[in-house]
Write a structure and sequence with these properties.
276 residues, mainly alpha, 75% helix
């Protein structure tokens, strides 16, 4: 029996290694294509590049005006994520702590936003944003992304808060803290794992979104990375020599954020969606 278990474990480990290598293949394919000429891409897309020139990256940076679109994307993403952390945690706190039926109804109301696709509200939302003169504005896009991701933020925060003890904030109140101060000093620091999860997931949703910038940021001065990448895709011709380096440049900032926050992500998802 121990021998059989040992063989089974080794086979399982081998299968996991093969799956890991298989998942790395798309990364290899995209990165290798960034160093090829259009002729090499067409002739041998699966082979290694014959040279490792950064010419495609330089051309892509200039064509996308990457420093400019990166600044726009960072501003919109960071601002909306900051609002999500503040508003989501504050909204989830009473929903998780109160036991009255009205708070449960409000929680279900917020969670319904996860199930309803954004496309259902595009037309009335555009009319509203246009009436408020927030088309082609940073704050308009920031508020839209905040509203889109707020249900997920509340869901994860509320689930995490239900697994934390109430005694900490009660002790803070006895020491003279107000409810607001007790939350920020005792409860919010405990939510670091779920906050990291929300930062990564909502950053991904905002950074990679194409529909909202396409509809609400039509002016070139507000162009984001996804819109700049979309300019390389035509109806009949796609500029692959610029598109592949653009994809790599677009992913790098998110990869850095993920590397720094990865130890909190799984813990935050498990505590925010399973416990309570």
């Amino acid at each position: 029996m121990p021998q059989q278990r040992n063989v089974r474990t080794k086979l399982l480990e081998l299968a996991m290694i093969l799956l890991a290598l298989l998942s790395l293949y798309p990364i290899y394919f995209i990165v290798s294509m960034t160093f090829k000429t259009p002729q090499q891409m067409a002739a041998s897309p699966l082979t290694l590049p014959t040279s490792f020139s950064l010419g495609n990256y330089a051309a892509t940076w200039e064509a996308m005006r990457f420093h400019y679109v990166l600044g726009n994307t960072l501003l919109i993403t960071a601002s909306s994520v900051l609002l999500l952390v503040v508003l989501g945690s504050l909204a989830a706190y009473p929903l998780a702590r109160k036991t009255e039926k009205v708070y449960y109804v409000l929680f279900v109301y917020f969670i319904a936003g996860i199930m309803l696709p954004f496309q259902l509200a595009m037309v009335p939302l555009y009319r509203l944003v246009n009436v408020l003169h927030m088309v082609n504005t940073y704050h308009g896009a920031i508020l839209i992304f905040t509203a889109i991701n707020l249900p997920l933020s509340i869901f994860l925060y509320a689930g995490f808060l239900r697994s934390t003890p109430k005694e900490l904030e009660e002790a803070a109140k006895i020491d003279g803290c107000s409810l607001f101060r007790a939350f920020w000093l005792t409860v919010f620091p405990l939510m670091k794992p779920v906050t990291a999860t929300i930062v990564v997931l909502c950053s991904l949703n905002t950074w990679n979104d194409l529909i909202v910038p396409l509809l609400f940021l039509q002016d070139q001065s507000y162009r984001t990375i996804t819109i700049a990448l979309y300019m390389f895709v035509g109806e009949h011709v796609t500029n692959w020599s610029l598109l592949f380096p653009g994809m790599v440049l677009a992913v790098l900032p998110l990869a850095v954020v993920y590397i720094f926050l990865q130890k909190f992500i799984i813990k935050g998802i498990a505590a925010g969606s399973v416990k309570g």
